[in-house]
TrEMBL record:
PROSITE patterns: ABC_TRANSPORTER_1, ABC_TRANSPORTER_2. One of its GO terms (molecular function) is ATP binding. Residues 14-257, 270-512 form the ABC transporter domain. SUPFAM superfamilies: P-loop containing nucleoside triphosphate hydrolases (SSF52540). This is Ribose import ATP-binding protein RbsA. Keywords: ATP-binding, Nucleotide-binding, Repeat, Transport. InterPro entries: AAA+_ATPase, ABC_carbohydrate_import_ATPase, ABC_transporter-like_ATP-bd, ABC_transporter-like_CS, P-loop_NTPase. The keyword Cell cycle does not apply. It comes from Capillimicrobium parvum. SMART domains: AAA (SM00382).
Length: 515
């Protein structure tokens, strides 16, 4: 970067001034102010429920602030009156975790969706022009892909880069606006994260201002020039790159020191009896999977997207088709065709997409906490609401769930808190087998350790856990052993001293590895 760019970098492209937002009794943002400089990657950090999503939704015009102003390239905007159209006109662009791209359409078509399809006088799409334009955009953003390729065939990082290019393609001038990325790396495996982070840094070096929301602090340390930390809707501080290290970021986010609890969770060794044994499982993307999980152990399932990780969990829960093979639970052969049969046998399952699959978004937190054990709250056919609420409050406290009240709707909670409720709900059934799909995705550093403590507690009490995760740093810390899935088969198993982040990444990214 030359001196000229350095000078431009200091100039704020966006100023957020005293933004306030309350939901009923909850102060989601209590007067948030910070500046975003041109040509920089600016991380927005904070624990679950600290206000990050609310801030972004106000920028996007999805929520109206109660007070505050935004200054974009010198023009003042009332934060109370933002709309998606105003946000767009002011140069704000958003890429969310769910990228809303279309994997079965080509790269060129995906780019055209954000821009419009050129047509001739007869309303026919000008395909050649479309592809040419796509080629230019791909070149501009350094994406190595053919416009005619189906998007779903690209690597996950390239797909994310196409989503970013799509968001930025119609910026009027060069790098005038702000790109907001909401947990863009959440479902990317490590090698891919690196690719996306370098692309992000490259775009910033070319002058783009980027606001980046993430819970993954290693990524902040690797890519961010600056970080603003929110806690309980207030800005704790904005730190420069030179002042950042993992420990101090954690302390700023949580407002307390967090012991490196994850390392303590690491297996104590000694497996108990086999809880679950799968033999020759096949169905959907699963070709042939055989493995066992014993009392006292956490077994990880790693694999690239599409490797069949989530399908294995769904099959064990009676929620995915089992075309061949056998499952034993505590030595007895079982064949679940419906989740309720699995639940009755002591199997717990938390899906990756918790809002649509796991929880009942319109029901209250208390109802959601109770739902897996509703039987407890029925007496002579009547639901004992008071008992349910009392227990829900105790649980919410025990699990540090942040919600306005246990009567608040589940959908009003922040993402990480929703995950805690879903887990807490299952834990109280004393499950035999826990099936957890990305249990800490979107969960803050403090709660992450708490969630793993919970899982470790359950397996120490005699359960077995099977965990799908894309986080190769976390898996070795919390699992006793990890199975690597590829194309619907177990390609490798690693445990003991061999179980390291490097080894897992190597196994994931090397095609020809045998067991
Ligand atoms: N639509 C809503 N209705 C009621 N309360 C809400 C709503 N949206 C957010 N909140 C509350 O505002 C606070 C801030 O939530 P927000 O989603 O902004 O947090 P976050 O920092 O994005 O959390 P996470 O890391 O878990 O995603 C929380 O207490 C949340 O429960």
């Amino acid at each position: 970067m030359d001196a000229g760019t350095e000078a431009v970098g200091a100039q704020p492209v966006l100023r957020i001034l005293g933004v306030e937002k309350t939901f009923g009794a909850t102060v989601a943002l209590g007067g948030v102010s910070f500046d975003l400089a041109r040509g920089s990657v600016h991380a927005l950090l904070g624990g679950n429920g600290s206000g990050k999503s609310t801030m972004i939704k106000i920028l996007a015009g999805v929520y109206h602030a109660d007070a505050g102003e935004l200054e974009l390239q010198g023009a003042r905007l009332d934060a109370r009156a933002m709309t998606p159209a105003r946000a767009h006109a002011a140069g704000l662009r958003f890429v969310h975790q769910q990228q809303s791209t279309f994997p079965e359409m080509t790269v060129a078509e995906n780019l055209a969706i954000g821009h419009g399809f050129d047509t001739d006088g007869l309303s026919r799409i000008r395909w050649r022009a479309l592809r040419r334009r796509a080629r230019e955009i791909l070149d501009r953003y350094g994406i190595d892909a053919d416009p005619r390729t189906e998007l779903g065939r690209l690597s996950p990082a390239s797909q994310a880069m196409v989503a970013i290019a799509r968001a930025l393609q119609d910026q009027d001038g060069e790098h005038e606006g702000v790109l907001v990325l909401d947990e863009p790396t959440a479902s990317l495996p490590a090698g891919e994260v690196e690719l996306l982070l370098s692309a992000i840094k490259r775009y910033a070096a070319a002058g783009q201002a980027i606001l980046f929301v993430t819970h993954r602090l290693e990524e902040v340390l690797r890519a961010a020039d600056r970080a603003t930390v929110l806690r309980d809707g207030q800005v704790v501080t904005t730190v420069e790159r030179a002042q950042m290290d993992h420990g101090s970021l954690v302390e700023l986010i949580m407002g307390r020191r967090v012991e490196q609890a994850l390392t303590e969770i690491h297996p104590v060794g000694g497996r108990g009896q086999v809880v679950m044994r799968a033999q020759g499982l096949a169905g959907g993307p699963i070709q042939e999977v055989s493995f066992a999980a014993s009392a006292g152990e956490i077994v990880g399932l790693a694999g690239l997207l599409g490797s069949g990780r989530s399908s294995v969990l769904r099959m064990l829960f009676g929620a995915g088709p089992v075309e061949a093979g056998a499952i034993e639970l505590d030595g007895r052969s079982v064949r679940f065709t419906q989740p309720r049969q699995a639940m009755a046998a002591g199997v717990a399952y938390t899906p990756e997409d918790r809002l649509s699959e796991a929880a009942f978004a319109d029901m209250s937190v208390a109802e959601n906490l109770g739902i897996a054990t509703t039987g407890r709250y029925f007496r002579r056919g009547r639901l004992r609401h008071r008992a349910e609420r009392r227990d829900a409050r105790a649980l919410a406290e025990a699990y540090h769930v942040k919600a306005a009240s246990v009567e608040a709707p589940f959908s009003s909670m922040s993402g990480g808190n929703q995950q805690k409720v879903v887990l807490a709900r299952w834990m109280r059934r004393d499950p035999r087998l826990l099936l957890l799909d990305e249990p800490t995705q979107g969960v803050d550093v403090g709660s992450r350790a708490e969630i793993w403590q919970l899982v470790r507690g359950a397996v120490e009490a005699g359960a077995a856990a099977i965990v799908v995760s894309s986080d190769m740093e976390e898996l070795p810390r919390v699992c006793d052993r990890v199975l690597v899935l590829r194309d619907g088969r177990i390609a490798a198993e690693v445990g003991g001293a061999e179980l390291t982040e490097e080894r897992l990444n190597h196994l994931l990214l090397t095609p020809e590895v045998t067991r």
